[in-house]
Design a protein that fits this description.
alpha+beta, Flag_bb_rod_N, 8-stranded antiparallel β-sheet, 12 helices, 5-stranded antiparallel β-sheet
Length: about 675
């Protein structure tokens, strides 16, 4: 009877615990990260009798947590990957909408500007048409400014979001370290504190939404967490801290530092996964290149338009004024160079654009070792050749070329020698879209006329014809109109034997047929005429001139109806003037303004489409990993309800065993009364 009573009591005790575990599961069905628990029973040690071993009841040996480290790791990694992609996607979709929008992008303003030039070229003396060109130029500059400002606002948002995310990372890292300590203490009795383990696992999962982590289990049941390429975030009960601070090279670009004890390490480029990794990846892959590509386009537009205007004459016969502001003014040149905060010298370099057509979309790093300068292109890490690498005196102008000898399109003026170890970040194009502005206020100063014109003598007997001369080389930009006027007029008198002279019998200095040879009647014969001072004009003579026929090249005085330079301005729309490779000869390289912007929009659009696909894929992977974990660890209310009924019956049956033992004991006692 005593044995039967103990057996029944053991069943009651085990069943009571099983009911408590089931109730715990049910009440935590909505608790994030909770893993279903089960009570594990085993039979007690039986006692021996003459008839054999007799069972002595049951005992509770463990409260088991339904958890798989493999499935938990899958959820963590999938969470980190999905959060990375979603953070990247949310940012790049905004950028794509901005650049490709019909009202927010650059393309509509570019088209309006060149359309206004086309209208003005049809009637070069029409002041309202010229005024429209000024208005559209101002609109184009403002559109560049606005797009830059919007992108800069996004850069500011990323800086703020990085700060907010690192605060969350630090909070969770501290919580995980505390859980490690509590779990190590609670587990010292040989049993696992299931609820603490679940809480820590959920904290790590939440941490994975902000940053990718590597989890390494320890013998005392604590977990060490590492980020980046192995930097410790949590070790046992101690946690490190992430801090966001202005970058050493660019204070507008925040960087992430890992602070552990008294040491500080920059880890920005090492981080991946989670929202923080997605923001950093977006900034390096899309935002920085967009800043630079947009700036390069703005520089090319202002440079090419200003240069072409400087090769023509306005309504007053003066050399054309610049339509856009000077991008090489002193302030702009200084802003393109950022000294590292670790510098000890006082050098203040300035970066001037020398050739906007060959600029890349990369930033550069310039270093000084005390004697020599070295430079590296950051987009691909290529080392550059500097000339000179060791200036003998200051101020010194440094030029840059890559291994193939390609000029990088800019030069740096060092006002003084830096200190040994000083570094500088060179950003030739980053601010181009923010600084472009339309500065021309007088419509009559638009140079739509070419500086030279040609004509045939009315007394010519043959049918020879001469085209209007085109200025193919200029000694200065803008041109020296006085020097060109001084070299003209230039007569061309045909001698009937394939040569033009002025006066008859005297060869014309600087006149060259292309290709060399005598004039061929009945064909188009191309000529160049060197006017001196680096100014060269080209023209063609065709037909069959008679001996003594003459032509004249003269300065284009009062050429108010001339639109030849305006047509050249219009041709800039499709001329390959962006990203030209100067090392390639004989083949046109580079792209036009429209194609250059189109390439930027296409690249961002491709990245956006890829981000959307990645978002769908990583979302599906995360759902699958979560479902797999929940299938094992999640609470099923139907199952738990069935367990309640089962354990209730079990409890009643165990109580009945005790009742039987009591009845037997009472019967035995009554027998001896």
């Amino acid at each position: 009877m005593a044995d039967l009573l103990n057996i029944g009591l053991s069943g009651l005790s085990a069943n009571k615990t099983a009911l408590a575990v089931t109730g715990h599961n049910i009440t935590n069905v909505n608790t994030p990260g909770f893993s279903r628990q089960d009570s594990v029973q085993a039979t007690r040690v039986p006692s021996f009798s003459g008839a054999g071993y007799i069972g002595s009841g049951t005992t509770l040996v463990d409260i088991r947590r339904s958890y798989s480290e493999f499935l938990g790791t899958q959820v963590r990694s999938s969470t980190a990957l999905n959060s990375d992609v979603q953070a990247y996607r949310s940012q790049i979709e905004q950028l794509d909408s901005l650049l490709a929008g019909s009202t927010t992008g650059i393309t509509p303003s570019l088209q309006k500007f060149f359309t206004s030039l086309q209208t003005a070229a049809e009637d070069p003396s029409n002041i309202p048409a010229r005024q429209l060109v000024l208005s559209e130029a101002e609109g184009l500059a403002r559109r560049f400014n606005t797009v830059y400002n919007r992108i800069d606002e996004q850069n500011g948002f990323i800086n703020k979001q990085m700060t907010a995310v690192t605060d969350q990372v630090n909070r969770l890292a501290g919580s995980i370290a505390s859980y490690n300590d509590a779990i190590a203490i609670a587990g010292s009795n040989g049993q696992q504190p299931n609820d603490l383990l679940d809480a820590r696992e959920e904290a790590i999962r939440q941490l994975s939404t902000f940053i990718g982590v590597t989890v390494v289990p320890q013998d005392d049941s604590s977990l060490n967490l590492f980020i980046g390429s192995g930097q410790p975030l949590v070790v046992g009960s101690a946690s490190s801290r992430l801090e966001v601070a202005p970058g050493q090279s660019d204070p507008n670009r925040l960087e992430v530092n890992l602070v552990a004890g008294g040491s500080r390490q920059g880890v920005t480029s090492m981080l991946s996964g989670g929202e923080l990794g997605g923001l950093i990846r977006y900034r390096s892959e899309a935002l920085d290149t967009t800043f630079n590509a947009l700036g390069r386009l703005a520089l090319a537009v202002s440079d090419q338009v200003n240069t072409q205007l400087g090769q023509g004459l306005d309504l007053k016969g003066q050399v054309g004024a610049a339509l856009f502001g000077d991008f090489n003014d002193a302030n702009a040149a200084i802003l393109r160079v950022k000294a590292f905060t670790t510098n000890t010298g006082n050098a203040q370099p300035a970066l001037n654009i020398s050739d906007s057509s060959v600029l890349t979309t990369s930033d550069y790093r310039l270093e000084f070792d005390g004697t020599n300068y070295t430079a590296r292109r950051l987009s691909d890490g290529a080392a550059l050749t500097l000339t000179p690498s060791a200036p003998g005196s200051y101020p010194a102008t440094l030029t840059f070329a890559d291994a193939a000898g390609r000029d990088q399109g800019f030069e740096v003026v060092m006002d003084a020698a830096p200190a040994t170890g000083d570094k500088f970040l060179l950003q030739p194009t980053r601010l181009g879209a923010s600084s472009i502005s339309a500065v021309l206020a007088q419509a009559d100063q638009l140079a739509f006329a070419a500086p030279a014109r040609a004509g045939a003598s009315l007394q010519n007997r043959g049918n020879g014809a001469i085209t209007q001369p085109e200025l193919t080389a200029a000694g200065a930009s803008p041109i020296d109109a006085a020097a060109i006027a001084a070299a003209l007029p230039q007569g061309l008198t045909y001698d009937g034997a394939g040569t033009f002279e002025d006066p008859p019998g005297t060869a014309i200095a600087g006149l060259t047929r292309v290709p060399a040879g005598a004039f061929v009647p009945g064909q188009v014969n191309a000529y160049t005429l060197d006017l001196g001072g680096g100014n060269v004009v080209s023209f063609s003579i065709s037909g069959r001139p008679e001996s003594g026929d003459s032509f004249t090249l003269e300065f284009n005085t009062n050429g108010v109806s001339d639109n030849r330079n305006a047509l050249k301005l219009i041709n800039l729309q499709n001329k390959q003037t962006v990203g030209v490779d100067p090392s390639v000869t004989g083949i046109a390289t580079g792209v036009s303004f429209t194609d250059g912007y189109g390439d930027l929009v296409e690249r961002v659009g491709t990245l956006t489409a890829q981000a959307r696909q990645d978002g769908e894929a990583t979302g599906a992977i995360l759902k699958q990993a979560t479902d797999n974990r929940d299938a094992l660890s999640g609470v099923n209310l139907d199952e738990e309800a069935a367990n309640l009924i089962k354990f209730e019956q079990y409890y009643n049956a165990s109580a009945q065993v005790i009742q039987v033992a009591r009845s037997l004991f009472d019967t035995l006692i009554n027998t001896f009364r």
